[in-house]
Amino acid sequence: MMQIDDFLNYLRYERNRSPRTIKSYGDDLHGFEDFFQNLDSQLTWETVDSDVIRDWMASLMDSGHTASTVNRRLSALRSFYRYALAHGQVDHDPAYAVKGPKKQRPLPQFLKESEMDRLLDPKMWDDSYQSVLERTIIMMFYETGMRRSELVSLTLERVDFTHHEVKVHGKRDKERIIPFGEELEAQLSRYVAERDKLEEHSSDSFFLNQKGRPVTAGEVYVWVRRNLSKVCTLKKRSPHVLRHTFATAMLNHKADLESVKQLLGHASLSTTEIYTHTTFEQLKREYIEAHPRA
User: Fold this and answer.
1) What DSSP state is assigned to residue 93?
2) H-type helices in 178-268, by residue range?
3) pTM value?
4) What does the buried/exposed string (b/e) look like for 177-215 if buried means 16 or more CB atoms within 10 Å of the residue's CB?
5) Residues designated catalytic
6) By CB neighbour count within 10 A (0-12 exposed, 13-18 middle, 19+ buried), where does 165 fall?
7) Which terminal CB of the chain, N or C, has fewer other CB atoms within 10 Å?
8) What are the tens digits of pLDDT across the range 161-213?
9) Is-contact 157 203, C-beta < 8 A?
10) Per-residue 3-state assignment (H helix, E strand, C coil) for 178-199
């Protein structure tokens, strides 16, 4: 107990840490102390080894704590042992070589196909230029999986109606070709017809706002977020969600992982593989909801 109090006083008076931080450190250290004393009443701060610390971390994970929380508590333990070693309270630092759990990469958020069907239903849109523009942008994201930066920088010459292809400049200035289907072709043609009616514009950018100027990344974000809010309750409702939705839909309909990688412009297959976890999680949810004994 004295060792913890000494360390907390060090944080309070020498490091000038906030009361909240000091309380957090104290809770973490007392929690670890309770753990190793329950594990073996003969254990002390001086005799604890790295395996005990790993067992403590495993128990935290088993109790439902996130990797971030466990890493924060391990950081408190490391700080304590550095202090204790420097002040001669222990003769070794068992936390030094212990690695914290890797943070899980969050699964991409995506819309269900039924939500996309509702969003793209013609009855949801009117004949105004702004409505045609926004629907076209959403369809472009959903049916090609391109990034927002790629859509904003798209030019007229890069949309090939004859071969149903669009050329985009991706990250690191890499160009890739993405095919598109008849439904998107029809929407693109309708948009171009409306675009040509704009009174003043001299830009070769494919997407222009009502003033005839190239759309900005900020405008696209606002339009997409507003429209996604009509059909879903996701916390994140950005253009990137539509890119996730494209990838998930492709894999759900048996697309090859390597093909999806090429379409998305990923440099590594491991980046694309995150979507296989997404589709499996969806499969598990559907199983639990549908199976009578699940």
Assistant:
1) -
2) 182-195, 217-228, 239-252, 257-264
3) 0.63
4) ebebeeebeebbeebeebbeeeeeeeeebbbbbeeeebb
5) 147, 171, 240, 243, 266, 275
6) middle
7) N
8) 999 999 998 877 788 999 999 999 999 999 999 999 987 777 899 999 999 99
9) no
10) EECCHHHHHHHHHHHHHHCCCC
